[in-house]
Amino acid sequence: MNHFSKQPYFLLALMGLTLTACGGSGDDSGAPTTPTVSYPSYTDVIALGGDTTTFDASNSGHGFSTPSLNLTEDELALHLEGDANFEASFTTAPNSEHPELDGLGPVFNNADCNSCHQRDGRNSTPFLAADQTRVKLDSSAGIFLRISKAADHPCTVGSADNQYCAPIKVPDFGDQLFHRGVLKARADWQDNAFVGQADVYLSYERHDVTYADGVVVSLKKPIFEVENPYDAPGETKQSTNVTSNLLQDDVLMGWRNGMPVFGLGLLEAIPEASILANVDAEDSNNDGISGRANWVFDAVKAQQGDENPVSLGRFGWKANTPSVRVQSLGALRGDIGITNPLFPDESVVGTSLHDSYLTRTGFIDTGEDANGEPEASAAFSDSVVFYAETLAVPARRNVDDSDVREGARLFEQLNCSGCHTPSFVTKTSGDIGGLPMSDSLKGQTIYPFSDMLLHDMGEGLADGRPDFLADGNEWRTRPLWGIGLTQTVNPQAGFLHDGRATTLEEAILWHGGEAQQSTDDFMALSQDERNQVIVFLRSL
Fold it and tell me: Which PROSITE patterns match (predicted)?
C-alpha cells in the first residue's frame, strides 16, 4: 500500500518561478532544484476511529472512557449500563445485600474489570522500592501469569482431537495462575488466608542500550518467581524435592498485562479478508516481515453447535481470542471467577483446590446463583460486552506540528507500517461475537496502526509459550491508536505485554526478530529524528 502524498515547499517553488519570469539568460543549468518531501497519507488524519472518534480526550485522565459518538439513544443506555457493570467490584458468596455481586473466585487475579484496565487503559506497572529486590503480587497488581505444559512437538494444525492447538493445561491448575483467593480458598487457609493457587513475586533485570551518539537508555525485563503452590505449600523451584504440578520443568509461564479496551468493536468489524490479505507467512516479498494468522477455538461458535468452532484470532497479546465477547466473558470468568452464560463453569472446576473448597465451605459458592444460573446474568454479560465494543477512539493531536509530521515520515521510512498497518475499512453488515453488529461500527475508515497478525519479535520479548498457532516468539501487532494518551490516563502504565517499557522509546528498543531492521534503523537516526518518531507516536 502506498502511504505517501507529495508536499512541495511552495515558497521555494514560487521564488523559482518569480526569478524566471523576471528574465535572465534563460540558462537554468545553475538554478536550484526545488526540494520535495513525501509524507505518508495518514500524516494529516485526525479521526482515527471514523465516526466513533471522540475529540475531547486531550490531556484527560478519562480519555479512553467516552462512548462512541454515533450511538443511538438505546445503545447509549446499554453502553452506560455496561460501564457501571465494568466498574462493579465482586464479593465472596453469599452476599445477601447484593447477591448480584457475589461469586468472586474462589481464586482470581482481581475483583473487577477496572483493576486490570484502569480507566479503560493499561494497568499500573509494579515498581520496587529502593530497598526491595522483588515484590509480591497483591490486590494492586494488574499483571498475571499465563501457564501451560510444554508440548512434545509443535501444534501446527488444529482439530478437535488436539483441542485446536489450545495451550495444554497444567494438571490441577489450568492455563492461568490465580495469585489471589477468597478467605478459605486453600486447605491451609489459616496459614495462607486470601492466597490463591500460589504466590507470585516480580523482580527486574536490567541492561543498557547505547546509541552511536553516546546516549544511553536503560531497559528492564520482568522476572517472575512462583512459590508456595497450594498442592505443595512452602515449596519453591529451589526445593530439594519438587512435587508441585506447577513447579515442574515442563511448565511454561508468561506475563500478561491488561490492555486498553477502547475501539475493540471496530477491530472486530474489520473484514477477515482484509486482515488475511496482509498474511505473508513465507515472506514472499523478502522484506523480512512475515505476518501470520492465528486460528483459535471460538466458544461462541461451539455454543451455537458449529462443527468447526474455529475463528481468526484478533484479541489478546497472541491473538488468542476471536471476539470481544469471548475476550470479555472469558476474563470475567477467568480473571475474576464470575461464571456467565458463555462460560458457565468455574475456570478451576475439577481441580483439587476447587473440590476441597466446596467441601470445606459447605458448597456455598458453586459458580451458580440461587436459581442455578451462572453468577453473571445474560443482561449483565451483554452490557459489559457492548461497553467494550463501543468505547470511542480518541482523536489525534498536534497533527500540524512540524516534528509530528517529520515523525510520520520517519515512521514510514523505518517500515514501522510493515506491521503497524495504518488503515482498514470496517464491514457494512454481519455479526460480531455471534450477534448483529451495531450500525455505529459499520463502514468506518479507521486507523488502528495494526495488521492484527502474529510476528516473531525476537528472543528478547519471547516468553517461549505457544498459544494456539502462535509460537513462543510471536505476538500480535498492538494497535497504536491512543498510545500517546496512555500515561495521561494512567501515569504508572507501561508498554509491551509485560509492562517492561516505561517509555515509547524503550518499547521500540525491545523490538527484535522481524522488527530488528526497523530498530537498527531507528538507532541510526540522530537524536532529533528519534524524538520526532516519538512525538508522532504521541500524536496517535
Answer: CYTC, PROKAR_LIPOPROTEIN
Nine cell digits for residue 23: 528574465
Q: Quick one: which of 518, 530, 497, 505 has its CA closest to 209?
A: 505
DSSP 152-163: SS---S--GGGG
Q: What's the distance, CA 154 to chain centroid?
A: 24
> What whole-number distance in Å separates Cα of residue 292 and Cα of residue 298?
18
The one-character DSSP state at 345 is S
User: Cα(192)–Cα(199) distance, rounded to whole angstroms?
Assistant: 10
Of 482, 497, 539, 503, the residue nearest 120 (C-alpha): 482
List of E strands, 212-315: 216-227, 251-257, 295-297, 310-312
d(CA 539, CA 442): 25
pTM, two decimals, is: 0.92
User: DSSP of 83-113, one letter per residue?
Assistant: HHHHH---BPSP-SS-GGGB---SEES-SSG
What is the band of 23 on the pLDDT scale with cuts at 50, 70, 90? very low
Beta strand spans in 258-380 (E): 295-297, 310-312
Strand residue runs (E) in 211-323: 216-227, 251-257, 295-297, 310-312
**Which residues are bridge partners to 170 per DSSP?**
174
Given a cut of 90, whether residue 24 has pLDDT beyond it is no
- What cell numbers appear for 500 in the block? 517492561
Q: Do 124 and 118 contact (CB within 8 A), yes or no?
A: yes
Query: CA-CA distances (angstroms) from residue 102 to 74, 342, 423, 531?
Result: 28, 18, 42, 49
CB contact set of 43 (below 8 Å; sequence gap of 6+): 5, 399, 405, 408, 409
For 433-455, how does the pLDDT look when each residue is reduced to its tens digit (9 = 90+)? 999 999 999 999 999 999 999 99
**Residue 459, number of CB atoms within 10 A of its CB:** 11
For 37-85, what is each residue's pLDDT tens digit? 899 999 999 999 999 999 987 777 889 999 999 999 999 999 999 999 9
In terms of C-beta distances under 8 Å and separation of at least 24 residues, what long-range contacts does 424-432 make, across chains too?
424/270, 424/271, 424/274, 424/275, 424/448, 425/271, 425/274, 426/50, 426/266, 426/269, 426/270, 426/271, 427/269, 427/270, 427/271, 432/265, 432/268, 432/269, 432/323, 432/324, 432/325, 432/389
